[in-house]
Structure formats: structure tokens, C-alpha cells
Design a protein that fits this description.
Length: about 200
């Protein structure tokens, strides 16, 4: 196996412990159509979160999809059924991770739609109890390349950006949610971006 293909198969190792890896070109020619169809065919919502007694519409739109409900900032989100495009992306992500020796499965996805560079997601870890002890989350990016910013909870090292090009998959492996927070900060001048963060939600 030549060096280039082995690098491509294993993804780019951004962090070793905890594992953070990026895999380019997940869907290939199908990526542009996947973006257009998800944008057009989903019923995008902008829920309001109550913080310190005030209502704030979230600065993006989202859809919670899959087989299990989810709690986020104290609210319960019932899932909508799998859309065929999201299902195809899930299967492509699982297959790609499998090739890299990472066996996993996902029963849920949070889709986030950022209309422009002003829309964003604040600092958080995806560490809700129903995601289990050490969740593995796969984030697929379509559209504008908006970096995901990471910071260590104990500030052991400087914060850093991870570029998320169109049609890339970012694997946040076990320990990433425990040790780091991430955010999608606003960036003027960027166009439409949709991300799909695949998870396994444990049901009681
Ligand atoms: O859109 C992104 O890249 C980040 C999404 C995210 O952090 C999440 O869905 O939990
Ligand atoms: Fe997240």
C-alpha cells in the first residue's frame, strides 16, 4: 500500500489522545446534491432555549433525527424519521470508519443548518448521560468550510481550530467530550453550511 492511500484510509490524525481524526471526500460526487436535498427537504426548526429566565432562539436551525429522543439544554427533542439522504450519509460514515478499523454504529443524528457566517453554535461538550461513558461522535460537513474550535477543559494546551471542508468527516473519539469543549464560532462572509453529528443514544 502506498503512503498516500494509507494516510487517506486512516484519516488525518489531528489528535492521538483523545482521538480526533478527519476523513476527506466522504460522499464524492454525491455531496453537492446531498447538501441541496437536506436544505430543501427537511423541516428546519429554530427552537427557543430558556436561559436565566429569558428566551433565546438558537442562532442556527436544526433537526433531530433517528430512532431515539434526546435532551439538550433541559429540553426534550422527539426525533423525526430518517431521511434517505441522512441515512445514506450515516452508512457512508460507518463504512469509512470501518475501513480505518473503527467499528461503530449510530442511531441518531443532530443536523445543524447555518445559513451564513453569523449563525453559530456556542461552547459545549456532547456529554449528555444518554450518550454513554465515552461517546464516539462523527460530524459530517457539507457546504461552507467553517472551522470547529476546540479548547481543553483544563487548559493544558492552547485552543485550536479544525477545518471542516465540504464533504469531510470529523471523528470525535472516546475522551474528546470529556477533555475538550467545541464551538462553531461566527465567521463573516461564509455561506450555507449543514453539519450532521451522528451519535448512539442509549434508551432506557
Ligand atoms: O456544526 C458543527 O460543526 C458542530 C455541531 C456540533 O457540535 C453538534 O452538533 O454537537
Ligand atoms: Fe457538539
Amino acid at each position: 500500500m502506498d503512503l498516500f492511500s494509507s494516510l487517506a484510509d486512516d484519516g488525518e490524525r489531528l489528535l492521538e489522545h483523545p482521538p480526533l481524526r478527519r476523513f476527506p471526500h466522504l460522499l464524492g460526487d454525491a455531496a453537492d446534491q446531498a447538501l441541496a436535498r437536506l436544505d430543501a427537504e427537511l423541516n428546519w426548526q429554530r427552537p427557543t432555549l430558556r436561559l436565566y429566565g429569558r428566551d433565546h432562539p438558537i442562532p442556527r436551525r436544526q433537526v433531530w433525527m433517528g430512532d431515539a429522543g434526546y435532551r439538550y439544554s433541559g429540553q426534550h427533542f422527539a426525533p423525526v424519521p430518517w431521511h434517505p439522504v441522512a441515512l445514506a450519509i450515516r452508512d457512508a460514515a460507518v463504512a469509512r470508519l470501518n475501513v480505518a478499523g473503527i467499528r461503530t454504529r449510530f442511531n441518531s443524528v443532530l443536523l445543524n443548518r447555518y445559513a451564513d457566517g453569523d449563525e453559530r453554535m456556542g461552547w459545549h461538550s456532547d456529554d449528555e448521560p444518554e450518550l454513554g461513558e465515552a461517546p464516539l461522535i462523527a460530524a459530517v460537513s457539507l457546504g461552507a468550510d467553517r472551522p470547529l474550535r476546540f479548547r481543553w477543559k483544563d487548559r493544558r494546551a492552547p485552543a485550536f481550530n479544525v477545518a471542516q471542508p465540504h464533504d469531510s468527516l470529523l471523528l470525535m473519539g472516546p475522551g474528546v467530550q470529556a477533555d475538550l469543549e467545541h464551538a462553531l464560532l461566527s465567521r463573516r462572509g461564509h455561506g450555507l453550511r449543514i453539519s450532521l453529528t451522528f451519535r448512539w443514544v442509549q434508551r432506557d
